[in-house]
Every structure is written in C-alpha cells, then in structure tokens.
Design brief:
Blueprint (H helix, E strand, L loop, with lengths): L2 E2 L5 H6 L13 H4 L1 H14 L3 E4 L13 H15 L5 E6 L16 H12 L5 E7 L2 H12 L5 E5 L10 H13 L4 E8 L4 H7 L6 E6 L2 E2 L6 E2 L5 H13 L4 E4 L5 H15 L1
Parallel strand pairs: 1-10, 2-3, 3-4, 4-5, 5-6, 6-7, 7-10
Antiparallel strand pairs: 8-9
Helix pairs in contact: 3-4, 3-10, 5-6, 6-7, 7-8, 9-10
Length: 274
C-alpha cells in the first residue's frame, strides 16, 4: 500500500506571500502567519496526503534562536489542528546547519540533536522525520537521538538541488546504517524529480519501507523560491508511477511541489487501495 506524504511548506508559504528571508527561513511563519501554515496543511490533506510534516525544519537553536522550542511546539499544534483524525504528523528534524552545506556539519552534533529530538518528541508528533541530510555521519547521530525518544523514526538523505552532495553509493551506506540504528523507513528528498531514481534505487533493499519526495522546477534562491518548470503535476504523477513500480511505498513532494502534485500522488495510490 502506498502512503502519500505532503508537499513543500516553504514553497507554499512563499507563493502565499509569507517572507522566507533569514536563517529561520519558514519557521517564523508559525508565529506570524499561523493561519497560512494551517491552510497549507489542510490543503495537502484535502489533496490526499495522510502524513504531514510539521513546519519545524528551522525551529532550531541555530535557525530560529531564542524561543525555538515554542515555535516547534506551535508548528506541530498547527499541523494537528489542520488535518483529519487518523492522519499522522511528523516533526521534521533537520541538519543543524545548512542542508546544502555538508561541510558545515558540526564535528560533534549529538548534544544539539538530542535537545531538538527531545523537544520535538514532547510536542505530540506521531513520528520524527530526520530529513534532508547531506552528511551521513550527522544523519546517523540524528537518528540515534530520535530513536532514543521512543517515537518511530524515518530518515531521508539528499544529494541536493544539483544532485552532487551525496552519491547513490553514499546514500546506500547511509540508509543501511540508519536502519541498523533503528530507522523504520528510509527516503531520499530534495533532489530534482528528473534525477532522483538513481538515489531511490540506492535506498531500496534495506529491509524497511522506502520512498522519495523530490524537487520540481528551477531554483531562484537556495533558501527562498522554486519556480515550477517541466515537472508539472501530471509529469510528477507519471514519475511517481515509476517510483511505485520500483517498490517505493512512501511518496511525497519537496521544494517546488504543491497540493496539485500531492493530488497526483493520491491518484497513483488509489489503484493500490482497491
């Protein structure tokens, strides 16, 4: 059975007029535009998503600064409020620094990841999603600290928007190591939809459910806006059919995607539900 994840939060906030400037990126929206965050979650639920990632990607000490714990708790509460009972809300646990700069990964990330994982686990989230990791070692630490909270843990690796940060072989090693550390699912994300299949193949065969949520369009600003390009919702749906045929059971959207892309994924999932 296919599980449909939601699509991008930052992209949709930008499309709906919310500023994404600064290190906190999308995180301030939890406090300054909660009604828009809630509406985005609701739109993804209406499109067919049943797993929703709360807007906690940058609610971290480094990204948000003072008050990050409140921003994280608010993000999960907004998601819970917006989606139907029975849907799952994942709290996003991201790299401690820039997800496109593995060279900035701290040498000793455990203390920070432990603090963030414990806060996220206390928000009422249903699972922890360690996502968009371009550094295998940091991802393993994040998974270990997330697993220690007792919640189910998924992990997702990225090769970045230019598909040059992690090789498929490195992702394979990272995924297997994450499973050995307790991850219940492995994914790849934040890679262009047209190129993600090689990395998707790399996370297959780890003994747990696997999947993908890809980028679409062209990047304008690494931290702000993606413009829709060749991967319109119909094209994204066509790609998702191939991902499902390869065995992926967790499908969603990353940068550049929106509710229309998720609706396409729901159409892919519908035949499997009959």
């Amino acid at each position: 059975m296919l599980t449909v994840l939601d699509g991008a939060m930052g992209t949709e906030l930008g499309r709906r007029g919310v500023s994404l400037k600064g290190r906190a990126w999308s995180a301030h929206a939890n406090l300054v535009a909660p009604e828009i965050v809630t509406a985005i979650h609701a739109d993804y639920a209406a499109a067919g998503a049943t797993v929703h990632t709360a807007n906690t990607f940058r609610t971290t000490p480094w990204g948000f600064g003072e008050g990050w714990e409140e921003a994280a708790a608010t993000a999960v509460a907004l998601a819970k409020r917006a989606v139907p009972a029975g849907h799952r809300v994942a709290a996003s646990l991201a790299p401690l620094r820039d997800c496109y700069r593995p060279d900035q990964s701290p040498l000793s990330p455990r203390v920070e990841h432990r603090a963030i994982a414990r806060v996220l686990a206390g928000t009422g989230a249903d699972l922890l999603l360690c996502e968009t990791f371009p550094h295998v070692g940091e991802a393993w630490v994040a998974v270990e600290e997330a697993v220690a909270t007792g919640l189910p843990v998924w992990v997702s690796f990225t090769a970045g928007p230019n598909a040059d940060l992690l090789s498929p072989r490195e992702v394979r090693r990272g995924a297997q190591g994450a499973v050995d550390r307790g991850a219940a699912a492995v994914l790849v994300n934040c890679i262009p939809a047209a190129r993600i299949e090689e990395w998707l193949d790399a996370v297959a065969g780890c003994g747990v459910p696997f999947g993908a949520y890809a980028n679409v369009g062209d990047i304008e600003d690494t931290h702000v806006v993606w413009h829709a390009g060749d991967d319109d919702p119909d094209a994204y749906q066509t790609r998702a059919v191939r991902w499902a045929a390869a065995g992926a059971t967790l499908l969603g959207g990353c940068c550049g995607t929106g509710p229309a892309h998720v609706a396409g994924l729901h159409r892919v999932a519908e035949p499997a539900e009959r």
